[in-house]
Structure formats: C-alpha cells, structure tokens
Design brief:
about 400 residues; alpha+beta; disordered C terminus; Peptidoglycan synthesis regulatory factor (PBP3), Domain 2; 8 helices; 2 domains; 5-stranded antiparallel β-sheet; 7-stranded mixed β-sheet; Beta-lactamase
C-alpha cells in the first residue's frame, strides 16, 4: 500500500460571524499580541487562532484558581459533596494575604460560598479553605490537582498551592489554561455562570469581579485574572458572539489597563477577522478511493462530521483541498470506517484535517475477482523482472 493524494478543488461558501473590520494589531503574519505568551482557540471549530509561547510553563498567579474551582465542581458533580457542604476556616487560610474573601476563623462557608469567593473575588483565603476541605491539607490538594491536570492533557502544569501564591514549582502554560477553560465551559455549564457574576458580598463586604469587559457588549463572560510581579498582568477569558465561542489566555503585560486593552483586541480580532467556512455537511461525498480485492472497484468517501473551519476573512474564496489515504484500500470495508483524510489548506494558518469515512460496505470479492487480481499482480512482477534483465 502507498499513500495516495487526490486533489479536489472545493468552492467553499463563507458563513461570516460578524462584520469584517481591521483590528489595530492585525498584521500580514497574524495578530501581534503585546503579551509575552498567549493562546487563542475557537471552540466552535476547534481552530487554534494564536499560539505564542503557549507551551512554556510560567507562573500563572491567580489564574490557577481555575484548577481549584475545577476540583470543587467535580466534588459536587460526583456527589461527594453538595453546594451546601460547609468547611471550617483554618488559621492558615485566615492569615492569607493578597486578594481575600475576608473569611473569619469562626465562619463556616458552604462550597457555593467558596466558589463565589474564588470565582468573583479571587479570594486566597477561600482557595486555601477549599483545598483543605477537599484534601485535608493544601499540600495534598496540590498533588491531587497536578494529577488531575495531567489527566486532562495539561502537560505543562504543576500545582504547588490552591491560590496561585508565588512558588517556584507552581507553573502552567497558556495552552493548559485554555484547555482548562474549555473543560470548565463544556463540562460544567451549570457552574460556569458563577464566573460571570459581577459582585459578591461576604461579611457585609461587597467586592466586584476582577474580570474585565463583563457586560461591555463584546461577549466576554468569564473566567479569571491574575497578577504577580513574575507573571505580570494576565487573563484567562472566554467570549461568545452568535454561535461562536473563543477561549484565550495571555500573560506578561505591564499594567491592568494593558490587560483590558489586550483582551478587547483579542476578542475583536478573533470574531471580526475570521470567516466561518462550510466545507460540507456530515455524510456528504467528497470523493472516492480504489479498493483492493473488493466486490466493488471503489468506495465513496464521505465527511464524518460537519466540515466547518475558520479562515482569515480577507483570504481567497477558493481553498485547496486534498484527499489523502493509504491505497488501494483493502476489502472488507465497513460503512462508517475512517479510511481517508480531507486536508484543507488555509492561507496563513495550519492545514485543517477532517476525517473521511467509507460511505458504503465493500465486502471481499469472490474467487474470480481475487484470481484476476493475483494474475494481474503476477504479470506485473514478471514484467518488472523482464525489465531488470533487459536493463
């Protein structure tokens, strides 16, 4: 068998998700982020729009509190605890500095209180209470959280504490933060609205959510800011416009104002500078491939899923697509089996690959088909040997 490439010129219809307007930081090579590291992914199509040092482990500051929220969400989802479960406040939690929920040693906050204290107020004290309530100690929590992060594919994450307090071993990459944000959004829709609450009051102290641009009319609806001198001003966020949603993470900016401007620029760029393109519907025939020793000479190749991709809005309307498979494909072939890949070349972006499935069953051929194939193969071998002798 050998890899075969069947070129297919596809005229793709654009489905725009917003008005196309130039962003100030747009360049020929893509978005020019001011952040030292950044990651942007379109969840609707699975397209990574921006990757700048996205796999470098860096201090995440309070953005790592998203891991603490994940552990709380899973404890409730798994029925190990409920939103009404209460935790005590240790001296260690009470003495935490930085951003606080202002828990008192005599308080008995519920898990729901702690979720709000972490999601809205970025409370370091609330994070320690949650860690101790879930795992006994913050150190034990850190081990559990690191293991869970690796299970989710967050390969550049090591959790040393529950709050993001500076620690040399406490590290996350921007891609890992994007993976975590996507998981929280898709797997815990019942809890995600906590991350968009504008304010929360505890012990008669009202504090506003630190996430910028909530309610600004551009679709921003959560997740978490961060700041330390090592991490700079950073943000893991998500925004939704129409049917599209993006997640993004960036760090290393010099001020809170820069963080706000960068978040707004990323959202505007991601939604305005890309067009959503339909390659075809699920089950649509995209070509055919030859079959070896089957009762049919070829098998139709159909899209295994709706083929929606993103492309730069200013790019050409015609895209190049290639059908790639190892062929001829040996029988028997079952309908629905992936036998090929559609590779779509997108200008200024990585190629997009979509699975192509067998559109029909192709049983093994009968005796005569196999005999003819064997004879043909034998004849080819003889001809090849004859050429070798002549040469």
């Amino acid at each position: 068998m050998r890899k075969l490439i069947q070129t297919a010129g596809l005229a793709l219809a654009l489905g725009m998700a917003g008005t196309v307007q130039p962003a100030q930081t747009q360049s020929v090579g893509g978005f020019e982020t001011r952040a030292s590291s950044a990651y942007v992914r379109d969840l609707t199509t699975g397209t990574v729009l921006l990757d700048k040092a996205a796999d470098v482990p860096l201090p995440p500051a309070s953005m790592s509190k998203l891991v603490t929220l994940l552990m709380l969400f899973e404890a409730v989802e798994d029925d190990r605890m409920t939103l009404e479960t209460t935790f005590g406040v240790s001296e260690r939690a009470y003495r935490m500095g930085g951003s606080r929920m202002f828990l008192e040693p005599t308080d008995q906050p519920t898990i729901e209180d702690l979720i709000r204290g972490i999601a809205v107020l970025s409370g370091n004290d609330a994070s320690v209470v949650a860690a101790e309530g879930l795992a006994g100690t913050e150190e034990a929590f850190a081990q559990l959280a690191t293991r869970r992060a690796r299970e989710l594919g967050m390969r550049n994450t090591t959790i040393a504490n529950s709050s993001g307090w500076p620690h040399p071993d406490h590290l996350m990459s921007m891609r890992d933060l994007g993976i975590l944000a996507e998981h929280l959004i898709t797997e815990f829709p019942q809890f995600y609205p906590y991350l968009a609450e504008r304010s929360f009051t505890w012990n008669d102290i009202t504090q506003n959510n630190r996430v910028p641009l909530l309610g600004a009319g551009i679709g921003m609806d959560g997740l978490k800011t961060g700041f330390t001198s090592a991490a700079g001003y950073s943000l893991t966020g998500s925004a939704r416009q129409g049917e599209r949603r993006i997640v993004f993470a960036f760090g290393g900016l010099g001020s809170e104002a820069e963080r706000v401007r960068e978040a707004e620029a990323i959202i505007n760029w991601a939604f305005r500078q890309f067009a959503r393109v339909s390659v075809g519907e699920e089950g649509q025939v995209m070509g055919e491939a030859p079959v070896w020793l089957g009762d049919a000479p070829s098998v139709p190749l159909v899209l295994g899923e709706m083929g929606d991709i993103l492309m730069p809005a200013i790019a050409r309307r015609e895209l190049d697509a290639r059908v790639v498979y190892e062929g001829p494909i040996p029988a028997p072939i079952a309908a629905g089996e992936q036998v090929a890949t559609l590779v779509v070349d997108v200008p200024d972006m990585e190629p997009v690959t979509l699975p192509l499935l067998a559109g029909a069953d192709v049983p093994e051929g009968g005796f005569m088909i196999r005999a003819r194939a064997s004879a043909s193969r034998l004849a080819g071998m003889i001809m090849g040997a004859s050429r070798d002798v002549i040469n």
